[in-house]
Design goal:
The complex is a heterodimer. Chain A is of the alpha/beta class. Helices cover 34% and strands 24% of the residues of chain A. By secondary structure, chain B is of the alpha/beta class. Chain B has helices at residues 23-37, 64-72, 94-107, 188-207, 224-234, 255-266; strands at 4-12, 45-50, 84-89, 113-120, 136-144, 151-159, 167-172, 179-184, 216-219, 274-281, 285-292. The chains are: A alpha/beta, B alpha/beta.
Chain lengths: 359, 293
Amino acid sequence: MPAPTKVRIESLGVSLPETILTTAALMDRCRRRPRLDLETITGIRERRVAVGEHALDLAVHAAERALALSRYRAEDLDAVICTSISKHHRDDEFTLEPATAVLVRKAIGAGRALVFDVVNACAGMLNGIAVLQALIRTGVVRNGMVVSGEQNLPLAESATREIRHSLDRQLAALTLGDAGAALILDAATDAGHGIHHLDLVTGARHDHYCRSLPSPRGRGGILLTKARGLQRKGAEHFPAYLKRALDATGWSIADLQHIIPHQVSVRAVRQGVKALSRHFGCEMPDIFLCCAETFGNTTTTSHFVALHEFMLNGRVCPGDNLLLVSGASGIVISHLTMTLDDLPDRYRALWGSGAGGVP
Amino acid sequence: MTRVRIESMGTSLPAWWQRRKGSVAHAVTAGRRCLAASRHQPADVGVLVSAGVYRDGHVAEPAIAAYIQHRLGINIEFQGRATLSFDLLNGGCGMLNAIQVAGALLQSGQAVAAMVVAGEANSDRRPDPASAVARSGAALALELSPRGGAGFGSFAFQTHEEDVGLFSAVVSLAVPRGRLFVRRQSGLEEAWLGHASAAVDEVLEREGLTRDQIDLVVPAQISADFLSRLPTAIGIPAAKVADFTASLPDTGSTSVFIAWQRLCAERRPAAGTRVLFLAVGSGLTLAAATYTV
């Protein structure tokens, strides 16, 4: 049986709102300020927030930026898969129909693309990549876009209104940030580059650790998290899947230039590193990329916000071997191994000066 | 490439005492019936896709599919065999999208069997009177076809963005617990009927078939009026179009496969029967797929 077609990230676009909201300012907004130092506990100093924009706008901006870097035009795209959790297109409204991907397709002019939404909590973009990879491998499409726009500020605002004490289950909502990200995938031209292994698994027994739903007390949505339990379960199980992903790729930790964990918080990333050290029985090298300090947890887009940040500052380079690790509510554990082609160079050349001429 | 076939099927419609049964419960009932009829063990299901649009309690995360996986008891622990569960949303066409995606994952060797499920219900305590959703569930077990030629052939999805405003569904977060508003504009059914023929043309062209070679059309059971006008709109005789609108309401994403199960229960189609599934949804999107029994 021939090896399956390898799929690569042909282009990346990230949209970060300009407004910065510090953790201190957010805590000041709380009606009943919890007696804890969230910044010290999480390591999140600030996050970007979309003001006067909605999740759809972030997704569309990211899609436009991805197209600006891509060799494909919007009308060349065979698929647009939208993986946002926050489907806010207007204030205080959550859209179920039409699919957000339809609205993105309309906004960017991808007139012939197959469109649908994939929703799988924070694992959404990796799940979207898995779906698009399967569609490319089976010849249904030749290329496509996975796009997500996350506007989490409404959840944080609900938390500032409703948090009652220092152990409130809405505290995690104060760690969230807003961002959009879009990827264009196609078949890799060089077998050495592209996605080597992508594995997602849902341990549905643990579906109660993190939920997002409308508030029963007032307007807006809320995020309820049993943060310690979620992290404990994640740390218990993800190292074995990570090892399996490395084995399936034929790599060891030493072959990796970078690991991009889900940017839940600086502390959560550190705890993940500790869990790996325990599992592998050795100290982990300094290859973990974390930008949660400045962007917070941008949920589905967090890996690609980190990739954006570390490609621009020159830490991620062409030919680097990357491992993306995600833990999402469900609980969904996902791992993706890939080798980058010249994407970091192209990305820096277009956006490095900060004058990329965004449409 | 090996085709993907429906290995077993289950559906759920509310009995009179189940008027409050939620979308997850309907999807789980349909899933249990599907697994009971299947030769696969629950643990064989490596991919579970939920295509239901309306979500119990308007939960945005986790994926509704995780709740369904949990209640069906499919590989719920992080040990032994693994299942990936996720939601795929595309209005009334979601199940056909999900079948194409689950089929691609099966063909890429990611699992032995996949399940596509959907459950629909308006979970509001006091639903908006204009936003009624007929409660239902449907589940399909999919596998690679052991017999060449049988199973799903081609798919066609056509989205007409110019008509995007004709159908929308939003959850208003301005009130506690949220409230679902489904907005259907006049002219919706005409727009679907107007676009249906093009979707049928596309799928038949891809499959290399003519209209005469289609033995059965199983469309979404939108309304008696819609079904009466559909044969003319797609150029296929009414005798070949399954119409259960006398006994089935429009159940949204589950409609096509509830109708298909009803048809199979009445008279099992012979092997080799060529079926055309036709779903319609917001977007506006029309989805057509060919299937050989």
